[in-house]
Amino acid sequence: MKEMFRIAGIISSRNSLIIEISGFILILIVWFLITYPKKHIILTFKSEQLKTPQYIWTGSNNFKANFNGDNIIENVQPGTYKFSVSDSAVSNFTGEIIIPAKLDTDIVKDYAITSNSNNAKIIIEVKVMEDGLVSKAILPTPQSVLLSYKDLHFKDFVVRETAYSFSINALGYIEAAMVSILLGFLIGLIPFMRSLLNRWVNAIRFIPLTAVTGLFIAWFGIATNMKVQFLAFGIFVYLLPVVVQRIDEVSKVYLQTAYTLGASSWQQIRHVYWPHVVSRLIDDIRVLTAISWTYIIIAEMLNQTGGVGALIHLAGRQSRLDKVFALLIIIVFIGVLQDKFFAWLNKVLFPYKKNI
Question: Cα separations (Å) of 61 from 77, 78, 193, 315, 346?
Fold first, then answer.
C-alpha cells in the first residue's frame, strides 16, 4: 500500500511538472503570436506652393483614393501608384511612384515630384513599419528580448550587477531576520514589552516605505549600506509582527507538557517556542522574497550606480523595452530559485514540521 502511494506521488509530481512546462510554452507561443512582426507601408504626401490640393490616387490591387489636402495612406501594398493633383494654381499635375516588394524595415524613402509650372512640388514619404498585433513599443518580441542578453552581458555586465543585487538581498534578509526574531521574542514572551510595543509594532506596517527613502539617504548616505538598511527595514516591518503572531500560535498543549516535565523557562523557549516559530517563519520569509526584490529595485534606482534596478531604470530611459523584459525575466528566475531553496531548506532543517 505504501509503495502504491509513493508511486502515485511520483506520478503526480511529474504531471505537475509537465503542466508547468506546458503552461510556460503556451505563454511563449501566445507572446510570439501577438508580437509576430508584420510589415506595413505608410505613404505620407504633402505639397509645396499648393493652396488647396485635391489628390486622386490609383494603383495596384484596384487601389483608388481621393483626398482633399495633404494626407496619409496606411497599409499600402507594393506596386505602382499614379496620382493626379488639381489646384487653383496647377491645372494638371500627375506623377507616379513605384514601391518595390522588398523594403527594409524602418527605412524612409522620399519621392519629390515637381510640376512644370509655378514650382509646385509634391513630397511623398514612404516608410516601412514592422509591428505585430501588439506594437513593439508596448511589448517587445521574444526574439528581441533573447537577443538583448548579448548587450546586457558584454556592455552592461548583467552577471556582475545581478550578483550585486543578490548580495544586497541576502544581507538585508539576514539583518532583518536577526532583529525581527530577537525583538519579536522579547515582545511575544515578556508581558511588559508586549504592552509597551505591541501596538506600535502593528502600526509600523502602514508606513509607506517608498516615502522614507529620503530618510535613509540622510542617515546612511547613498552607497551600498543605505540599500541594505532600506531593504532590511522593508522586511523587518512585515516580519516583526509575524514573529509575534507565530509565538501566539504555539499550542498550550506543548507548553503544558514541557512544564509537566519540569522544563525551565529557557528550556521552553529552546525546545518549544524556537522550533515552532522558526519552522513557521521560513514560510513567511519565502512570501517576502517578492517584496524584497521590489525594494531592491527602488533602492538601486536612487543612485543608479549598480544592480539590476539601475539597469532597468537606464533601459527604460533609453526606451529599450527588450532589455527591461530581459531583466525582469532574470529577477523572476532568481525569485523562483530562492523559493525552491527555501522549500528545500524547510524540509532539511524541519523534517518534523509536518507532524506538528
Answer: 8, 10, 84, 43, 68
**Would you say 339 and 286 are in contact if contact means Cβ atoms under 8 Å apart?**
yes
Residues 67-99 have pLDDT tens digits of 776 677 777 777 787 877 777 655 566 777 777
Rounded to whole angstroms, how far apart are CA atoms 258 and 175? 31
CA-CA distance, 36 to 119, in Å (whole number)? 44
Q: Using an 8 Å Cβ cutoff, are 105 and 127 in contact?
A: no
The string over 115-134, giving b where at least 16 C-beta atoms fall within 10 Å of a residue's C-beta and e elsewhere, is: beeeebebebebbbbebbee
Q: Which residues lie closer than 8 Å to 84 by C-beta, 6 or more apart?
A: 55, 56, 92, 93, 94, 95
Is residue 262 pLDDT above 60, yes or no?
Answer: yes
Instruction: Inform me whether the pLDDT recorded for 263 exceeds 60.
Output: yes
Mention every residue, 6+ apart, whose C-beta is less than 8 A from residue 95. Answer: 82, 83, 84, 85, 113, 122, 124
- The mean pLDDT of 299-322, rounded to a whole number, is 82
**Does pTM top 0.90 for this prediction?**
no
Alpha carbon 295 to chain centroid, angstroms: 13
Cα–Cα distance, 45 to 112 (Å, whole number): 10
Contact predicate 115/93, CB 8 Å = yes
User: Nearest to residue 327, comparing CAs of 350, 311, 305, 347?
Assistant: 311
